[in-house]
Design the sequence.
């Protein structure tokens, strides 16, 4: 019997390593596993978003939720027209506008993205933990806006309508062949319609087999505190923190 040299490594990673071959093809068992993973990934992209379940979880945590929709009327349009997923539908825009207050520190948005399962599994727990690290006396938070057919940039419009200084968008990431429930957390300071991706920071791969919710929340809270101190996010914040760190340890600054 030939010993499988990759068996030990496979116990520590869901990645497809050492698949082997039969002639010029994959062994049947590996081929079938790959086809199953592809099917699960396709299903994840098309699984309907159920924000009501998230809203129930949030209410148990003492957090209000508001349901709305992007300008993409259905899943097929959403997949073919990313631009529509970045803007709110007219009725939702007016609903969010009606909730505008004097000023908010942080708008909270949850969107289905490309994996509704990720948002439904992880977002409520993450937001509850985040609220615990942001004192209510210094952080005025919006209700959690739950967006059907939403892309990351839809949070910019939500925050602008709510008059929020910053926004956090939790969104289901594109499924991989071993991760169909990965959540991403995107943060933008001074959000507005038309923000570039370079103005955002992202914490990715939040899931049981990836970055834990506890670790993600600590990183996100630290990022929010730094962003408020510097009034920046994205590449500009990364550079500012790098320069600050360099000065603290006595390294020369770039440029």
Sequence:
């Amino acid at each position: 019997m030939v010993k499988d040299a990759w068996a030990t490594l496979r116990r520590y990673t869901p990645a497809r390593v050492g698949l082997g071959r039969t002639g010029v093809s994959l062994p049947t068992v590996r081929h079938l596993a790959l086809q199953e993973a592809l099917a699960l990934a396709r299903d994840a992209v098309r699984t309907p978003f159920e924000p009501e379940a998230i809203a129930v979880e949030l209410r148990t945590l003492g957090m209000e939720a508001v349901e709305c929709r992007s300008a993409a009327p259905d899943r097929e349009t959403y997949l073919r027209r990313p631009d529509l997923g970045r803007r709110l539908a007219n009725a939702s825009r007016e609903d969010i506008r009606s909730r505008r207050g004097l000023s908010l520190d942080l708008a909270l948005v949850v969107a289905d993205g490309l994996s509704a399962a990720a948002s439904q599994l992880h977002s409520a727990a993450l937001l509850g933990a985040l609220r615990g690290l942001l004192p209510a006396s210094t952080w005025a938070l919006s209700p959690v806006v739950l967006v059907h057919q939403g892309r990351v940039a839809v949070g910019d419009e939500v925050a602008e309508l709510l008059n929020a200084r910053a926004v956090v968008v939790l969104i289901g990431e594109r499924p991989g062949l071993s991760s169909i429930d990965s959540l991403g957390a995107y943060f933008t300071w001074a959000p507005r319609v038309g923000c570039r991706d370079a103005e955002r920071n992202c914490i990715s791969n939040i899931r049981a087999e990836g970055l834990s919710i506890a670790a993600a929340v600590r990183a996100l809270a630290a990022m929010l505190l730094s962003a408020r101190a510097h009034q920046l996010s994205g590449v500009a914040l990364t550079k500012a923190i790098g320069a600050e760190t360099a000065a603290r340890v006595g390294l020369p600054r770039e440029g």
Notes: Residues 51-243 form a domain with the Rossmann fold fold (CATH 3.40.50.11240). DSSP finds ten helices and six strands in the chain.
